[in-house]
Amino acid sequence: MASSTQKPSSSSSSSSTSIRKYNFDVFLSFRGEDTRNNFTDHLFVNLHRMGINTFRDDQLERGEEIKSELLRTIEKSRISIVVFSKDYARSKWCLDELAKIVECREEMEQIVLPVFYHVDPSDVRKQTGSFREAFSIHERNVDEKKVQRWKDSLTKASNLSGFHVNDGYESKHIEEITNGICKRLNPKLLPIDDDMVGIDSRLEDFKLLLDNHSNDVLVVGIYGTGGIGKTTIAKIVYNEIQCQFNGACFLEDVRERSKNGCQLQLQKQLLRGIVGQEVEFSDTNEGINIIKGRLGSKKVLIVIDDVDQLQQLKSVAGSPNWFCPGSTIIITTRDQRLLVEYGVTISYKATGLHYREALQLFSRHAFEQNDPKEDYVGLSNCMVQYAQGLPLALKVLGSSLRGMTVDEWKCALDKFKKNPMKKINDVLRISFDGLDPSQKEVFLDIACFFKGECKMSC
Asked: Among the options 97, 103, 107, 357, which is catalytic?
């Protein structure tokens, strides 16, 4: 940690930031007489509900001098929120806090977010209005250098981007502040593949569905062929919107995990992800009751990924009524009928990549560039047609052919036509295995009917 007398270089500063140990996520600075029992209390409670470890000093005994342990607490906080209210500057304690906060911002790169609570930022910046009145008193009773330090701190803090609380419901302002803090704290983001060719337009279509709904519990289904990108869409959306909820959990690969009897573990993961602590119980029925009881009053985001049986949903999200209005449940599956049976609010069909997108994704894996090499253009087109816009197939094919000669590519293409790659075939077979007996017969009839017909021109 840098000393208070020497500002570290940018390189040392960023290095120290990466290894610094924090005791609190947020330090709240406010004047108790102005906002202790209303705005600041509601903000503190909301931050706490979101799992954000927040310190407020209203339990400390006040005096003329700010206590040294409080200064250390400010240093050990990742973010400081300063609630500027009408009489904030009347408190010497608050002004000392602010001076320390600004110092930590300059020397330790602490994040500082001002909240202008029914005050004009220019009054804070220029010490006019009620702030001028406060300083007219301080200038008669406090050392000149200290007064100037307070003024400089007010000016610097008020020039930062922050939040303005004037008109409208305070709850809306508090929600906005809390979401902003959550994003700043770098929540646990799910890993996303770097090769997201063609994903942007699909994301926009999907997010439009999320935006057009009421404040009831929203249940959205994403369906489509295996390897088409359903999980990728769900992960990206989860990362982007999780901070809008009181808790969030992504239950991945539910179909495979349920085969191994992991329903109990899925229930515990859901509770741990949203409640933030382990919840012990011994059977799934007990887990259902605990989920309904503990999560029923929370606005939650739950993603249930790769489901193929209704019972897999029933054990973790049996009914939208289990959750608080404003919650969102996202389900990914290969089986559209399952979504209908569960009663989803909105269904979204994940589709394959367009030709140009598919060629780009394939080329990235085959040649580590966005277009095929000149001698491989025709063969690349054949591979892209073979993959039928399936992102998984394009990645697997491209990676398997990287570094091969043209003749080796031709041999591989003939082989793929006769015997599809096992990794791709295994993914597609899951969709076939999920069909009921009559559907399998229809599928095989169609497949056999066209056997021998020319499908590819290359």
From this structure: 97
